[in-house]
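Researcher: Here's my situation. A collaborator sent me these components and asked whether they could plausibly form a single complex. I don't have experimental data yet, so a predicted model of the whole assembly would be a useful starting point for our discussion.
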Amino acid sequence: MKNDVKCPLNYTMNLIGTKWKPLILFHLLEENLRSGVLQKHISGISNKMFTQTIRELEKDGLVFRKVYPVVPPKVEYGLTERGKSLEPILRGLDAWGLKDSKI
Amino acid sequence: MKNDVKCPLNYTMNLIGTKWKPLILFHLLEENLRSGVLQKHISGISNKMFTQTIRELEKDGLVFRKVYPVVPPKVEYGLTERGKSLEPILRGLDAWGLKDSKI
DNA sequence: TAACTATACCACTTTTTAGTAAGTTATTGC
DNA sequence: GCAATAACTTACTAAAAAGTGGTATAGTTA
């Protein structure tokens, strides 16, 4: 099913409209994190979904990946400028949930 | 998989984090619409998904449904106060998509 | 009386998303 | 030699989301 190109909202939802993407982006707002640390922050995510989701975010240029050539591996993730530009939206979603869940 | 109750973002995504929900809400921002008209605004949605999605929005108190007892049926949908409180977020998502898609 | 209307339901199938569990890598330290 | 490590990767399965096509309704109009 094709999306309506005329609706930018659709464009946005295609980029971040999944279960885990907003969560991962949100947890990177404050600081870059090592792969394992970030994953532990996202309660409930499976190893597979984490890798898969962050790969897509990377492919879409919302997240960057920095690999340190050491053993054992060290990988760091952070937001790109494009990713950072989502900050108001992510905070908005979070704030709305906080407020609404108290009603 | 349970969601992290501690993260309000998760709460919000549970309410509107699907393919069609934000679209439907967005198209109701300006005015209440008859079922058929609304559905035609959402390009690509199937009849079944429309009904199913709007039922959930109604159940969650984001959308109200007004039925006129006439034949053929007339049904109107609109945003509740709770639904309207999502306006900044919906517009934010739309605006972000518009800006980003031009880069 | 038969077609038309707007809305919504149901059964069924396909597609997408998510979860589990195991295996891979290359080096350190015992 | 072998376990421990961090970050994946793969094969398989389960669950959720979405699509298709058909049916019901009951007045109005032709």
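Model: Some features of this prediction you could bring to your collaborator: Residues 1-5 of chain A have pLDDT under 50 and may be disordered. Residues 4-101 of chain A form a domain with the Arc Repressor Mutant, subunit A fold (CATH 1.10.10.10).
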